[in-house]
From TrEMBL:
The active site is at residue 187. CDD domains: MDH_cytoplasmic_cytosolic. This is Malate dehydrogenase. It comes from Stylosanthes guianensis. HAMAP family: Malate_dehydrog_2. GO terms for biological process: malate metabolic process; tricarboxylic acid cycle. Substrate binds at residues 92, 98, 131, 162. InterPro entries: L-lactate/malate_DH, Lactate/malate_DH_C, Lactate/malate_DH_N, Lactate_DH/Glyco_Ohase_4_C, Malate_DH_AS, Malate_DH_NAD-dep_euk, Malate_DH_type2, NAD(P)-bd_dom_sf. One of its GO terms (molecular function) is L-malate dehydrogenase (NAD+) activity.
Amino acid sequence: AKDPVRVLVTGAAGQIGYALVPMIARGVMLGADQPVILHMLDIPPAAEALNGVKMELVDAAFPLLKGVVATTDVVEACTGVNIAVMVGGFPRKEGMERKDVMSKNVSIYKSQASALEKHAAANCKVLVVANPANTNALILKEFAPSIPEKNISCLTRLDHNRALGQISERLNVQVSDVKNVIIWGNHSSTQYPDVNHASVNTPAGAKAVRELVSDDAWLNGEFITTVQQRGAAIIKARKLSSALSAASAACDHIRDWVLGTPEGTWVSMGVYSDGSYNVPAGLIYSFPVTCQNGEWKIVQGLPIDEFSRKKLDLTAEELSEEKALAYSCLS
Ligand code: NAX
């Protein structure tokens, strides 16, 4: 039998945490043959709720779940973890300045970076979910210099999956037959959902989404805004933000990163830019990636048309601004 993998979930008493921990304990993230030990971190005001989640995990009697650490101590939470899913953060409240929210998250991610750097297992993989996800991941990277940058990522897989879902609904095809959409840039409304390289499996072989939809006005307009604004649409409908879809996307992100992407398929991940596609180096930016042997690689050489170029640049500009704002919070 395999040794258990230790998976940290921060903000585990929150909404996404509540959807995510049972998925991990059922093997959705790491496979049905991979035992896990869950480490759950939250802050003292949520300690009792966190303990309630732990009680439910015990009551669920998950065969793969070999232990649960539920704590408000960041060092205890980070010790020995192989995977860290960072869901905890400071939410933007009505009337708050962007800078104030950024400042709270910078201080959270700075201190959690140090705890991970000192106490996590060697080669720990980190996924930041909490918003502003790309910039929180960048701060984490800056303050955990001994964690290789290739091990730090942020979640844009939910946006990627939303794009697959929209194409599947529009064409009335199975979502599993749609592939290779791309989310470029920030996990925010400036992200660019790109279908220029996406395809659908049909009985007659793979067909380009552009060819099958053949409505460029929709693909260049409503499709993009629907994906960009989907988070707000969920809040409007549910009076709560996305949780089950975010948790499911976090599992997809880690699973593909650890176990690999299928041949011929790429996914979107927020990763440290090396300057590919003329995206400024040193930003955490969402790119198309393939994964093999536990490592992601940016898909190279995709042609970028003028329409796309503008959108790639716009979301990069927003990330550069966020980065500057985050740094101004440090001084
Ligand atoms: P909740 O407010 O339900 O849960 C957040 C939890 O984090 C709370 O239990 C809170 O006590 C805890 N927390 C706060 N500060 C902490 C700290 N310093 N250490 C540990 N825990 C801490 O929010 P939820 O709906 O679960 O969303 C969590 C985060 O995900 C938010 O930042 C949200 O904006 C972000 N999202 C990101 C998405 C993405 O695709 N990247 C999509 C979904 C979601 O909106």
